[in-house]
Write a structure and sequence with these properties.
elongated, mainly alpha, 146 residues
């Protein structure tokens, strides 16, 4: 069972099948083929002891040089991708964002021209706002190329 966990096989039925199909499982099981119910009952009965044994076993395997420890993830782990639906942008939306950013830049340039005549909103630094919009436009242009 520990070998199954180390190789990513967690389900009792798959461990049972592996004793027939996989040579390492067959050897570790001593040529026997325990039923999946037996494996599940064994896991349920001895799970705390197995958990205490699993980490030292992995560390021992690493010490022998047969295992390199890295990130271990279990089923059910949620990993947010860079290309998720919420961050993906369609070509149509990309063009809309591009025109919106250009409009914002034009607005800020118009504000700088009339800065002496009109009162500016509090906390607005026009140079920073323009730089930010130009950076966004550059990112949009880069996304268009890709």
């Amino acid at each position: 069972m520990l070998y199954g966990y180390a190789t990513g096989i967690f389900r009792a039925r798959k461990i049972e099948r592996a004793t027939y199909e996989s040579i390492p499982f067959h050897c570790l099981a001593g040529g026997l083929h325990p039923d999946h119910d037996t494996i599940a009952n064994f896991r349920k009965t001895f799970l705390p002891a197995l958990q205490d044994l699993f980490v030292p076993l992995l560390l021992y395997a690493q010490e022998l040089g047969v295992l390199t420890l890295g990130n271990i993830s279990l089923d059910g782990t949620t990993i947010h991708a860079d290309a998720s639906k919420s961050s993906a942008v369609s070509d149509k939306r990309l063009l809309a964002l591009d025109s919106q950013r250009r409009t914002e830049v034009d607005t800020f340039f118009a504000l700088t021209e009339h800065a002496e005549q009109t009162e500016m909103p509090e906390g607005l630094v026009i140079a920073d706002a323009i730089a930010f919009r130009h950076e966004r436009l550059a990112n949009l242009a880069k996304a268009k190329v890709v």
